[in-house]
Structure formats: C-alpha cells, structure tokens
Write a structure and sequence with these properties.
Layout (H helix, E strand, L loop, with lengths): L3 H20 L3 E5 L5 H11 L5 H9 L3 E5 L2 E5 L22 H9 L1 E5 L8 E9 L5 E6 L22 H17 L2
Antiparallel strand pairs: 1-2, 2-3, 4-5, 5-6
Helix pairs in contact: 1-5
Length: 182
C-alpha cells in the first residue's frame, strides 16, 4: 500500500480539486466508484503486472476521475480496464517502427491523457522502471517525440523518478493553477 503521508497528500489534492470545481460555473467533476481488492487483483492478472501501490491506493480510495467543462473533458484518468487499449499504435509514434520503441510502447500502461482527445499524448507507467517501494515510474508519451523508456530496471536516477502520487498531485495543482484564471 502507499505510504500514509503520500495518501494524505493525495487526499488533500483531491479535496482541493473538488473545492475548485464546485466554485467554477459549467465545470463538473465525476468520480467512478472505488475499486475493490478483488477488482485490483483482476487488473493485475489481466496485465500480468503488479500495479504501483500509490495508483492502487488511489483507485481503491477514489476510483478514477474526470473534470468536464461544458461537456468536454479537461483532465481525467483512463478506465483501468483499458490501460493498454488507450495506448497509441506504435507505428504512429515517432521512432515506433524501431522494435525496441514498439516493445516499450506495448508494455507501458497508459493511465491518463495529457490533453484533449484530439491529440494522442498520454501519461503512462513504465513497467521497466520499478523502485524499491514497488512504484512504477510515470513517464510522458508525446505523439511528436520519440518514445524512450529506460530498459534496465531502475535506470532512472532516483531524483528523476516520478511515482503516481507525486504525479497526480502535480497534475491536480497544475490544473487548478491553469483554470484559476479562466
């Protein structure tokens, strides 16, 4: 499970998001039902991969979410049943015709779009980069950039490693900052 301190920081960020959206006209926040332990176990079996503890904690506590403005999704999370289905076709990726890049894209779990559905940019978990706490590194997939995941486990420098808790708090805070002016 994720650390209590990490869970608290995430819970505070979710509360900030809820409060922010409540104050915005035409903006709404939708959460799915939290997942059960059995559902998480089924997901891990489906992907043949132990999911990161902070992501599991989020799913078990909050479910997934999306923020809508005038009916259009501004930010949100992919349905955990579709973490591979959300992935772009490797042949569409820059460098995706290289076997190593294609393999990395096919392994990654795409859990969140970076921007709207018109552009295929995602945040994903890198199954090749797991730290000692069981967290998977969160990396960006940009359709117009070469997709490069480190190949040996733990090859990212510790200071560069971004876990799900750190990621989601940052995404929520950036969203609030961006739309506070709107």
């Amino acid at each position: 499970m994720a650390s209590n301190a990490g869970s608290q920081v995430v819970a505070e960020a979710v509360a900030r998001l809820k409060n922010f959206v409540e104050e915005k006209e035409d903006m709404e926040l939708e959460f799915t039902a939290p997942l059960s332990e059995k559902q998480v176990t089924a997901l891990e079996a489906k992907y043949s991969l132990k999911l990161p503890p902070s992501y599991v904690d989020f799913l078990r506590t909050h479910g997934t979410f999306k923020v809508l403005y005038g009916g259009a999704e501004l930010i949100g999370m992919e349905d955990p049943q579709h973490l591979h289905a959300a992935a772009p076709d490797p042949s569409d990726a820059q460098g995706g015709d290289e076997p190593e890049v294609e393999e990395a894209i096919n392994e990654a779990l795409f859990f969140q779009r970076i921007d709207d559905d018109a552009v295929e940019n995602f945040w994903c978990f890198n199954p090749r980069d797991r730290n000692s706490r069981g967290e998977l590194g969160v990396v960006a997939y940009q359709h117009d950039e070469t997709f490069g995941l480190p190949t040996p486990e733990g090859s990212q420098k510790a200071q560069d490693f971004r876990d799900f808790s750190t990621h989601i708090v940052s995404i929520i805070d950036e969203f609030i900052e961006t739309y506070a002016e709107a």
